[in-house]
């Protein structure tokens, strides 16, 4: 029965993803100070015309591990007790995705965002630093992986969840990243799959 539920959920994710919007380079995410469609991660979430995807719970994976399935736009955290929590995410655009195994190196509440020099060359409007607040594209929490350039974080553009929209990081809804932030610790293993 659990297998049938998993197959049905995977099928639904694939169908929903086929209608997802794919952002062009630096659309919405890297544009600093754009008030069109403004979202403040420090206020309650906006009302959505469609219901948010439900978090699925199922079993089967290494305990205490984050597994990211980029094609399914899903992050699954397997707790040390063996329960699996699945969250919808946004992943990197084509050519900006990374696959492999790494670990959580650190975490930050209300993170500071520093666009890379490459991002700033492509979009000169980007500042060197974006302090915590409503304009920060990292949202309210960041979980740093590997050398700190790759992150699991919130977003100030929740419409991007379920798409290939980022410069390589993994975006989550504010409520989800805040929950995951409390559950994981530095050293947590992270597996990123195609």
From TrEMBL:
Keywords: Cell shape, Cell wall biogenesis/degradation, Glycosyltransferase, Hydrolase, Peptidoglycan synthesis, Signal, Transferase
A cellular-component GO term for this protein: extracellular region
Pathway(s) the chain acts in: Cell wall biogenesis; peptidoglycan biosynthesis
Gene3D superfamilies, per the entry: L,D-transpeptidase catalytic domain-like
SUPFAM superfamilies: L,D-transpeptidase catalytic domain-like
Residues annotated as the enzyme's active site: 153, 169
InterPro entries cross-referenced by the UniProt entry: LD-transpeptidase, LD_TPept_cat_dom, Transpep_catalytic_dom
GO molecular function: glycosyltransferase activity; peptidoglycan L,D-transpeptidase activity
A Pfam family it matches: YkuD
Signal peptide: 1-20
GO biological process assignments: cell wall organization; peptidoglycan-protein cross-linking; regulation of cell shape
Boundaries of every L,D-TPase catalytic domain copy: 64-193
Protein family: Belongs to the YkuD family.
The name this protein goes by in its record: L,D-TPase catalytic domain-containing protein
């Amino acid at each position: 029965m659990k297998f049938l539920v998993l197959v049905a959920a995977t099928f639904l994710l694939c169908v929903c993803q086929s209608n997802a919007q794919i952002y062009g380079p630096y659309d919405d995410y890297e544009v600093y100070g754009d008030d069109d469609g403004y979202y403040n991660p420090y206020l309650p979430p906006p009302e959505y015309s469609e219901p948010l995807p439900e978090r699925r719970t199922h079993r089967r994976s290494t305990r205490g591990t984050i597994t990211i399935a980029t094609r399914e736009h899903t992050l699954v955290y397997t707790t040390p007790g063996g329960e699996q929590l699945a969250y919808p995410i946004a992943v990197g655009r084509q050519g900006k995705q990374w696959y492999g195994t790494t670990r959580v190196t650190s975490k930050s509440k209300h993170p500071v965002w520093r666009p890379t020099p490459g991002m700033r060359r492509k979009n000169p409007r980007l500042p060197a630093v974006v302090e915590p607040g409503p304009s920060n594209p990292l949202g309210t929490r960041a979980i740093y992986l590997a050398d700190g350039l790759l992150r699991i974080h919130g977003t100030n553009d929740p419409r991007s969840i379920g798409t290939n929209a980022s410069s390589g990081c993994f975006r989550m809804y504010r409520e989800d990243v805040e929950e995951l932030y409390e559950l994981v610790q530095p050293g947590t293993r992270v597996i990123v799959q195609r």
